[in-house]
Amino acid sequence: MDVEFTRAQRPLVCVLGGTGFVGHHLVNHLTEHGYRVRIPSRRPQRHRELGVLPHVELLEADVHDPQTLSRLVRGCDAAVNLVAILNEERPGDFQRVHVELPRKLVQACQDAGVQRLLHMSALNADPRGDLSRYLTSKGEGEALVHGVQDLEVTSFRPSIIFGLGDHFFNRFAALLRLSPFVLPLACPRSRLAPVYVDDVVGAMIHALEDRRTIGQRYDLCGPHAYTLQQLVEFTAQTIGVKRLVIPLGDGLSRLQARILQHLPGKLFTYDNYRSLQVDGVCRQGFPEIFGIDPQPIEAIVPVYLANQTLRARYDQFRALARHEY
Ligand SMILES: NC(=O)c1ccc[n+]([C@@H]2O[C@H](COP(=O)([O-])OP(=O)(O)OC[C@H]3O[C@@H](n4cnc5c(N)ncnc54)[C@H](OP(=O)(O)O)[C@@H]3O)[C@@H](O)[C@H]2O)c1
């Protein structure tokens, strides 16, 4: 968008989950593209770097409270939902976060007269699927928002997303550094097509400005597919550590999931194992409508993973310990 906006003219977008990995990138791109952004967070004090950005309003808020949600979206030109969890702390969390929250958000949008909603789903999300609760609940949330009349919804269904601050390569980098000599890897043959975060948020911003995307659901993948084992070996090579990545068979993969899910941090759960039983690859290339030539991991990951400062490595370990990956 090459129009110069004054503050009052800038369209306002409320980004739920704007403090997360994708959220940081999306918020930066939105402000660069002439938007104002409102970000509710449970712990805004952890994300002061966002609060100081021009045209960004960072608020402490409970997005699960319907009245709070209505106040948050009031006056906005669009809402974006990026809130999700990979694992449940308590039974029912997937339902609450992936299904009930979207239900409350569409209601809040309708009450406040907000017509445009971008919803972040996930590749292979399917309300009728019988793999993982993560994918089923994400599918339920996606189906729900597209079933609402008078709301202009676009959904995004990415494979694993990579980029500065990602959960995938940073997590494996930390695990590889912590592993003494070997890393036993569950589901080594699962295939994934990692997609660059800037390509994902580029598609989202394009969608805000292109009405042809309304009602559509877009699978988003990077240009190449890899096995999980190849991706972990690529990570080891990129950070310059020599570890033997030992591929576990199916029985041992299940066993690893069943043990690790009971340990603090839930590094790998049985639900994660179930998610990996379906390949995270797209049937088609990056949707042409966005005019984006998606970046491969080889062009981007070394830029933020190789030659990391000690501070960056410390942050990586801290995120692992805080269960943020
Ligand atoms: N990262 C990937 O590889 C990937 C792949 C496919 C799809 N996706 C989808 O992309 C979206 C963003 O992912 P991400 O990696 O950016 O996630 P993330 O870094 O974990 O961020 C999630 C955000 O949601 C908020 N949040 C988490 N749990 C919440 C809860 N119980 N109640 C309210 N807010 C909560 C957090 O905000 P506060 O802590 O500030 O409140 C955080 O900003 C998600 O929908 C995810 O399913 C991600």
Could you explain how this protein is built, in words?
This protein is an alpha/beta fold and 325 residues long. It folds into 2 domains: 12-158, Rossmann fold (3-Layer(aba) Sandwich), CATH 3.40.50; 163-193 and 223-279 and 295-318, Alpha-Beta Complex (UDP-galactose 4-epimerase, domain 1), CATH 3.90.25. Helix content is 41%, strand content 16%. It contains 12 helices and 13 strands. The strands form 4 sheets. Strands 3-2-1-4-5-6-11 form a 7-stranded parallel β-sheet, sandwiched between helices. Helix 1 links the parallel strand 1 and strand 2 (36-41). Helix 1 crosses helix 7 (197-209). The longest helix is centred in the first third of the chain and has 20 residues, at 93-112. The protein is globular. The relative contact order is 0.12. Residues 1-7 have low confidence and may be disordered. It binds NADP nicotinamide-adenine-dinucleotide phosphate. NADP nicotinamide-adenine-dinucleotide phosphate binds next to helix 1.
